Amino acid sequence: MLTLGLLATLEAKPDHIDELQELLTSSLALAEREEGTVVWFALRLGPTTFGIFDAFGSDADRRAHLEGRIAATLLAEAPRLLAREPDIRPVDVLAAKVPGRR
Asked: Minimal CA–CA distance to 88: which of 61, 57, 53, 58?
């Protein structure tokens, strides 16, 4: 059952919008390899604003994701690509519809 998530908001520097978008879209392959990451979405919320939402079945899975390659890459590139620190918030999933999961 999905009960935990992460919601991240990222504000790109105007001259690095395309690079941030590419970093996010290419991170899908990494997310697919994470067994504990049940759902993972990269989002565009506005002209320079992006987001990531992912959900997990346990706190251990969420911690593993935060210590994984996507987070490490994002944090390493943040000073160059982002206008400000990423806003990464743990969230509780109240309800979810995910194909193949109950």
From this structure: 53
Query: Which residue type sits at 25?
Result: T
The pair of structure tokens assigned to 47 is 């002209």
pLDDT digits (tens, 9 = 90+) for 76-101: 999 999 999 999 999 999 999 988 76
Q: Considering only CA atoms, which of 40, 45, 55 is closest in space to residue 17?
A: 45
Residue 30, both tokens: 């990494």
Closest CA to 65 of 75, 52, 74, 56: 56
Neighbours of 45 (CB within 10 A): 11
Q: What is the pTM of this model?
A: 0.93
CA-closest candidate to residue 24, choices 65, 56, 71, 85: 71
Q: How many CB atoms lie within 10 A of CB 47?
A: 8
